[in-house]
Amino acid sequence: MAYEMNFTPVLARTPELISGTIDTLILSSQSIGIGLTIGLAAALLRVDGPKWGAVVSATYVEAFRNTPLLVQLFLLFFGLPYMGIRLTANEAAIFAISLNLGAYSAEIFRAGLLAIPKTQIEAGLALGLSRLQVMRYVVIIPALRIIYPSLTGQLTLTLLGTSIASAISATELTLAGAKIESQTFRSLETFLVLAAIYITMTFVFRFLYWLVGLWLFRRRVPKTGSAAATLTLPREVES
Amino acid sequence: MPALRIENLKKSYGNVPVLKGINLAVENGDVVAVIGRSGSGKSTMLRCINGLEPFQEGTIEVVGHKLDQSRANLRELRKEVGMVFQSYNLFPHLSVAENITLAPRVVKGLPRDEGSALVREVLSRVGLAEKADAYPDELSGGQQQRVAIARSLAMKPKVMLFDEVTSALDPELTGEVLKTIAQLAEAGMTMVLVTHEMGFARRVATRTVFMHQGTVWEEGKSEEIFTHPKTPELKNFIAPDLK
Amino acid sequence: MIQSFGWQSVQFLFHGLVWTVGLSLCTFVGGGIFGLLFAIARSLGPNWLRALVAGYIQLVQATPLLIVVFLSYYGLSFLGFYFPPLAAAAISLTIYATAFLADIWRGCIEAIPRTQWEAADALALSPFQRLRYVILPQAFQISLGPTVGFMVQIVKNTSVTALIGFVELTRAGQLLNNMTFQPFHVFLTVAAMYFVVCYPLSWWSEKLKERKHAGTAH
After folding, report:
1. What pTM value is reported for the model?
2. Which of B93, B148, B155 sits opposite A128 (nearest CB)?
3. Which CATH class is domain A20-238?
């Protein structure tokens, strides 16, 4: 029995798909904003903070990296009311996704901070800069450059991870799709369309990250005679 | 009042004492060379002077700012003390001009439009006026070290510290850096240099301090120290250079 | 019928945990086999094959796992196959893990310096022997840390199959919650069970990565 694909009923719901996409973008950007802030704070606390701070930070990071996002969502959405904190589905989703991204990005930021030679920090301090100024002017840009690929990769995973928020009925694209699927019975078509939208979003964001990277690290390339350029020569001769 | 006064400075790593009560006074305009074997504590002492190393006992005073174990006054003191490192430590993501103006801007609130005059002034003192827009990785080691000196000068320090600043350089690049330091000495800058360049210490330094086993073992006028060493340890140390 | 959270509940959840571990192992074996083939094809195959595999990796890595799971479960059953939740879960997780493992291992294969290939060539090894005796053993060493790290992701990702009704640990938690109405206890216990499985793997992965760094320092 051959199955005939029919996208018409799904595409007829384009307005819902668009608003779902916008909801996903909003949920993602809110979570990314909060999550990266948490991550940076946790990394600084771990690297540069007092001993208790390092313990708190490490415990948070390990707890959230070693349990599924879906369970974190359930715990915050269904479990927190037990402690008298009641969140809407969207609030719980932002909260859980932010904490999840915070834990992952904390490890990424920490790797970046540790990759900056101690001598750079000493040079900044010796010039009279405060610790905060050393972070801001001396450490952040070179560290960001080192971690940029893994950080943007993590942001992509966060964008795609928001689809899980549909499990607690937070408004976003996958929930919109699930509703369309249940009303049209066009499951395969619906989820193919959703996949196409997510794939498009991912590629657009990768392109944006690349542009932002160009701007952030807009230093020109060293002119000539760098060691790296000469080292790669023999390879090219061979191929 | 001396520009720099160190009193009874003691520091240890765990149970291992590295500085066992250092006393040293540096007058305005003095150029003090600190020599000694590696492990004698000379670099550690230098790093204590601007607070990069905490210490357990004693005080360090630079033009009225007193530093002790409490580390209060640390930043006030650092504004008066410039430091140049063995590995230059220029900031790779900033141009030469940005390296130079960073601290004056964010620490002293230098207005943006006065930056380029400052850059020109300090770069000309190290003979690199044309390199303001270059990035560190476009410069030779010697040029990078001279930019590091210029960066330090831009804070108008009362005292400058040099931590083995030519040790990482090829011999042919050492000369240009030493020449720059000699010119600063002539201009009257108060300086403390940890160095392995004995000839340079003897020629440029007004006084030389020989450190041994965490103490100031012998000190005096440079000429005196190199021609008439009193202790056998110092005699041994400088013997190869006298041949 | 369980009415409140107690010892019986923990036993109930433990059954779910067994399925979670089982599904993780299936995924790791399936993803491992295809991932290795894809990694080799991606880094050493003819150009058209490289492009094909690269496209697969790109597309899967740009699709939410939940959508992959839904496509396998709802979508493919319309094509005339019926997939029970277990099969749909295993297939979709394998599709997903294949893309990520292939990408990780490709990086490891390409990290082996060119000089090693040349040395093997100079010793007159055949292309297969080069891979078998020179390249893959070294790539394997490098890959250990990231691979164990990805196993943590696999274990956590199995939770998504709860949303198509496969009764693993998270689904067991949902069912238990419907019986006891004690979500805080239930999901905290569920989280703790995941942690007990994942944390040792994370720790092991870090150790392996550290050892690798210590090894390259020489």
Report:
1. 0.82
2. B155
3. mainly alpha
